Amino acid sequence: MAADIYDWIAQLKSNQWVLDVGSGEGSFPGAEFSCRWLALDDDPAAFTTTVRYNRVTGRGHQLPVADGSIDLLICHHALEHLAPLDQTLAEMARVLKPGGQCYISVPNGHGLCDAVYRLVFLGGGHVNRFRKDEVVSLVEQRLNLRLAEWHKLYSSFVYLRKLMELLETPPPKLPRRLLAISWLPQSCVGFVQRTLYVGTRFLDRWLRTDLAVYGWAFFFEKPSGQPVVEQPGYVNVCLHCGTGQPAAGAPRTRWWSCRCPNCSLTYPYTRPFRSTR
Ligand SMILES: [Zn+2]
Questions:
Q1: CA 83 – ligand 1 centroid, Å
Q2: How many domains does the chain have?
Q3: I need a labelling partner for 270 at 20 to 30 A (CA). Which of 4, 142, 225, 249 fits?
Q4: How far away, in angstroms, is 183 Cα from ligand 1 center?
Q5: 227 CB burial (10 A radius; 0-12, 13-18, 19+)
Q6: pTM, whole model, 2 decimals?
Q7: What would the pLDDT profile of 182-208 be if each residue is shown by its tens digit?
């Protein structure tokens, strides 16, 4: 059984296909792979920098792909944006090979992180709101797969930082709520982000809540009769770029801070608790 999505991608052979639905620039830019990779997004502007993938512009509910041709379907932080959902899942079922695998990550549509996101970004294009059990049974039924493994995705509320970058040159006709935020000093939003980051982890550790959990990553395979396994999620997630890393290998700069392997900036270190690493 694979431990994470990078293992699933790496094990595919050169004649096998990944379809990355709602890919943006491409999900998992750090992944090593020898398979063929088709990145699909409805926004041609999404394909600006990455040249590692075959790219196609298209919609999730009209996949320009032959029946039963895909070995691994990836839908990473995308299913919450895709409508109509029923047709999108039907298309995913159509293109997946018998015995193929499917990785889906979605936000908890009823959690704190998604609530803050929706508040700040006025919905932010999240047209589907999922609960964990609902999305699992939906995918299992529609794609005729079974959940094999899953893990929690911890948030760094990095979208608040991205919002400030966006508001450095505010677009015309900015909604009033965003206009009000754009008047705040950057340090104020940075303080709010840091407080949410540390505060939610503190509460999750001591009150056993899931306030810092943004959503979940699910690994679906053909039914095997094996029990579903929860893998530990990365609780250390960069405040600046959103990259997670295992606590055990995190380069420490102080006892309370660590360095991001992706952007090299530092952020508060969290000791693992419950199902985290
Ligand atoms: Zn980083």
A1: 31
A2: 2
A3: 4
A4: 26
A5: exposed
A6: 0.92
A7: 788 878 888 999 999 999 999 999 999
